[in-house]
Amino acid sequence: MARVTVVGGGVVGLTTALELAEAGHRVTVVRDQPVEDTVSRVAGGLWFPYHVEPRARAVAWGLVALRRFTALAHSPDGPAAGVRMAHGVMVHRTEPDLWWTEGLGAVLPAPREVLPTDALGGYAVRVPLVDTGAFLPWLENRCATTGVRLVRRTIDSLDDIGDDLEGDVVVIAAGLRSATLLPDPEVRPGRGQVVRLANPGLTEWVVDPENPAGLAYVLPHGEVVVCGGTDVEGEWSTEPDPEVERAILARCRDLVPALRDAPVVGRAVGLRPLAPSVRLARHTVDGRDIVTNYGHGGAGVTLSWGCAEEVVRLLA
Ligand SMILES: Cc1cc2nc3c(=O)[nH]c(=O)nc-3n(C[C@H](O)[C@H](O)[C@H](O)COP(=O)(O)OP(=O)(O)OC[C@H]3O[C@@H](n4cnc5c(N)ncnc54)[C@H](O)[C@@H]3O)c2cc1C
């Protein structure tokens, strides 16, 4: 069994740390943000492999996470973990490419009356929907009770991982900022802005990725509905833009008229860690044993458990 330091305490770092600890490794997580401030917290939490490569591996990792989230949703821990199975509709405006539905089970045409009038069609699926506001603290707590040491610190370079941190293997799971630790110049941000509305009673989700006015999605999580969104490559600003917010609200209220009078209760911006392919591999860097697990783009929640299980296999 190894002594492992995981750099990163978002959804990727925490699921990896928990899997490693459950496999018997001695694990320390180092991160410099509270979970509430991570990109993972901004995520809408839909199980959907959006803006991530390569597809074949994303499908395989996603299916592992699908199985794990489904089991969690059906367990007594489901509500506390913020995980439920939710029906929803994926709208399409061109011939749909259903590559990501492999292994999902029933994928049925959505009834015409729930679709925008100008849409070509849509399909109805039931997938995990994860409220990251509940899931991340639950995960962090599970890590702590499984023996993972949680340390708050910024790692400026791999040399910062000294004797006080577990040192046989370092897992780099620091999202977008992994790129400065290694370095990895191909990694770039995909800026995403969301608006949170008071939930008027919705339980089902809708995603309209090809909306001519821009990406639109409505994801209900209990009292709150997460409305999005945007995905602007290369943009680094994390300040919510009021103009962008107005446009998101217009698209989402058009898509789901029940949201017309729902008040805004919050807003957030996150930078998706985009990469030409998910960086999941074991390397030797400056004589150190390193496993990378970053670059999950718009699918960090969706692939989380699948990638975490693969990290455990890489260390076996
Ligand atoms: C608007 C939006 C909507 C999204 N919706 C979904 C969705 O519905 N479904 C889905 O699957 N995905 C979604 N995503 C994508 C998902 O949020 C990301 O893929 C995921 O959060 C990446 O997780 P991560 O753990 O790699 O990174 P992060 O959440 O960014 O966590 C990085 C961690 O590393 C730590 N860290 C970084 N650098 C250092 C350092 N040098 N020293 C110490 N600590 C460091 C930070 O403190 C933090 O703990 C969405 C993203 C956005 C922006």
TrEMBL record:
Residue sites binding D-dopa per the record: Y217, R272, G298
EC number of this enzyme: 1.4.3.3
Keywords tagged on the record: FAD, Flavoprotein, Oxidoreductase
GO molecular function: D-amino-acid oxidase activity; FAD binding
Domain spans labelled FAD dependent oxidoreductase: 3-313
Database matches in SUPFAM superfamilies: FAD-linked reductases, C-terminal domain, Nucleotide-binding domain
Cofactors: FAD
Gene Ontology BP, a term: D-amino acid catabolic process
Organism from which the protein derives: Nostocoides japonicum T1-X7
Binding site for FAD: G297, G298, A299, G300, V301, T302
Keyword Iron: no
Name of the protein in question: D-amino-acid oxidase
Reaction catalysis annotation: a D-alpha-amino acid + O2 + H2O = a 2-oxocarboxylate + H2O2 + NH4(+)
Family: Belongs to the DAMOX/DASOX family.
This protein's GO CC annotations: cytoplasm
